[in-house]
Amino acid sequence: MPVRLALLALLRHPARTLLAILGVAVSAALLLDMVMLASGMRENFRDFLLIRGYQLRVAPKGTLPFDSEATMDSAAALVARVRAVPGVTAVSPVLGAQGTALLADTMVTAFTLGLDPTVQGDYELRRGRDLPAPRARAVPGDTIGTLVANAAWFARTRLAIGDTVRLAVGYDPQLRTVLGERRFVIAGEARFHYVATAQPTLAVPLATLQAMAGDDRADRVSLLMVKAAPGVDADSVRDRIQATAPRTSAISLAGATAQVEQRLAYFRQLALVLGSISLAVGVLLVTTLVTISVNERQGEIAVLRAIGIARGSVVRQVFLEGLVIAGTGSLLGLGLGLVTGEWLEGILRDFPGMPATFRFFVFQPRDAGLSLVLLTLAGVTAGLYPAFRAASLPIATTLRREAVA
What we know:
This protein is α+β, with helices and mostly antiparallel strands. The protein is built from 13 helices and 10 strands. It has helices spanning 2-11, 14-49, 75-83, 151-157, 206-212, 234-244, 253-263, 265-296, 298-306, 311-349, 365-382, 384-391, 395-404; strands at 56-60, 88-102, 107-115, 123-128, 145-149, 164-169, 180-192, 201-205, 223-228, 248-251. Strands 2-3-8-5-7-6 form a 6-stranded mixed beta barrel.
């Protein structure tokens, strides 16, 4: 009986009910997006760091990876020491530099990574060939080198796989001098995980970049990516690496997550504020509509009470009206939230410096569950005032007023 009466009351004004449901759907979509933003970044960052299974990063002491131009010396010996640490299964050394492609009519600067392709965790090859396996240390100018580049670099240079390009490191635009220059054949196109999509990026063999960068970087690296054995506690491995190489900073997944969360705290605070606002808007919207419905049906409610319908039955009917609006709007809002989340993701993906594989809005079933729980509570809360108003109507006075009217 209360369910049927609640549905009939809502269908009495279909346009108003539809607009209310759409309003709740918009609030639900915003709430879901904010929940996804608040909880998804942390989970996504963990997956982001573990794209290739490397749980640890070893950087120059006091810095984050590539947070500065600092490098670590005696790289070969350092890599050997870290590989010998119990629990370490792989070490990927990386050197970062600015490489300038010297073209016929222009110059294109790109973030250039020197790495070992057999253990690298920085990119995935999309097409073409990969870098060759490392050999003895290269000497500038002895042979033609090999590089892979991302789509942004191909778009800027208008080169293609198989072309040859002159690449310089340490280019000084005022003096027109370079630390090292070499010809490279473009072997393939890659997607780099940790750099922005729009950032032109190259990868060359580590020994080649070390040789091109001059004597100052002949045996240096910017970063070591370390993979711990399955079942081994990564934090204990980090402690062993730190003891073995005290002049470096060994960063575990938990430590990196904590540091990045500090930098992304703005987004979490924004998500909390906007999510709370969307929830409040939904409550006020449903409360307003159900209150208007109760005011319009005061005579009807008084008649029901006069013929013996219990106060609790009337209260349940009013609550059900709010729950139907909130529930229907919430289900529509979940689908709308996924669509708007992808749209917002596209906007934030173009944020300067954001890595290509990092995502802000990550859908998880628990996010949808949390949103539904919050919206259900909002529907119940929205029904409190109109239910109290319906239950407290004076029967005789209301019937007399309706009769006179």
